[in-house]
Amino acid sequence: MSRHLRLFALSLFSLCCFSSQSALAKTITVDADNAINLSSPFTREDCDGTAAKPTATTLSAALAMAQERDTILICPGTYAEEVLVTTSHLLISGLRGQGNTIDAILDGESTRHVGISIASDVETVTIQNIAIENYLDAAIKAVQGPTYHVLIQDAAFHNNANGVIAGDETSPVGTFTHTYFRVRRSLFTTNSAAGTAIAFTNCRNCRIQRNDIDGGDIGIILRAQNSSDPSLTNNRLLLNTVTHAASVGILLESLQNTTLKSPTLQRNTVTDTPSGVGIRLFAHDNAAIRGGKVVQSTITPANPGIEVLTATGGVVEKVKFADN
């Protein structure tokens, strides 16, 4: 067989395989009321309670049957459960209610611990248009191992001890890195005086963007800890608003012999923080925050506004501060 003919055959085989995989992708519709119209996906008529049974009545059941490239559509309603995402290449989307409200609600009922857990090595998952509330530990947690290209957007988090936690300072620290983990355009109200709305530990190329945060102890944490990964770099916090954080609005922290490289904080707003610390950079235990910038921030009251701390051999260097 000639080289050109072999290449054509290989291309045709790849196209057939891709087409076959695309044809297998499906929409799994979740409705707690067990009565929906499946004839027209992604419309409110799917969830009006007038027609056929849904694919699943719980999000847990939908995730159990999901395969890569599937879409899980969550109808308006309240789902009292804890769920685990183990499948990659998923879209998990609530269907917005009349007036564009977020009416698909995952409820911990102040008895459950984590709303959505994301397993190790999950990649390319989007979670959107869902409210998660009343969980004792966190709304969303990815602490079992590395993840890649996880996107959480257009969501609402209310009355949880913590919001979105990617990586964990307690277990297992330093053994994995999240890549392209993003949280954007979401609303957080935190009920715990010790809680954090968004916390990323050991991340690269991650984004926290255009979120509105109210309450808790710390609004946003970007942390590097006990990691041998030299590429904890290019993380960006952009256009977030943090209000009423008890201790610190935004915390950049590096500890235990780790370097947080070139973080960017730009056009963030921190208001009504009782301590007066809008943004804190803290390197300790022979760790470093190196490079990056903190620019165009609005902090009120500004006392001290931006604080740089080091301890036990920690170093903060080559960070640009401008127009704050």
Describe the protein:
It is a single chain. The chain has 324 residues and is mainly β. The chain has one domain: 3 Solenoid (Pectate Lyase C-like), CATH 2.160.20. 9% of the residues lie in helices and 44% in strands. The chain is built from 2 helices and 34 strands. It has helices at residues 3-24, 59-65, and strands at 27-30, 71-74, 77-79, 83-85, 90-94, 104-107, 114-118, 123-128, 131-133, 138-142, 148-153, 156-160, 164-166, 178-179, 182-184, 187-190, 196-201, 203-204, 207-209, 212-215, 218-225, 236-238, 241-243, 248-255, 259-261, 264-266, 269-271, 277-284, 288-290, 293-295, 298-300, 305-311, 315-317, 320-322. The strands form 5 sheets. An 11-stranded parallel beta sheet has the order 1-2-5-8-11-15-19-22-26-30-34, covered by helices on one side. Strand 1, helix 2 (59-65) and strand 2 form a beta-alpha-beta unit. The chain starts with a helix and ends with a strand.
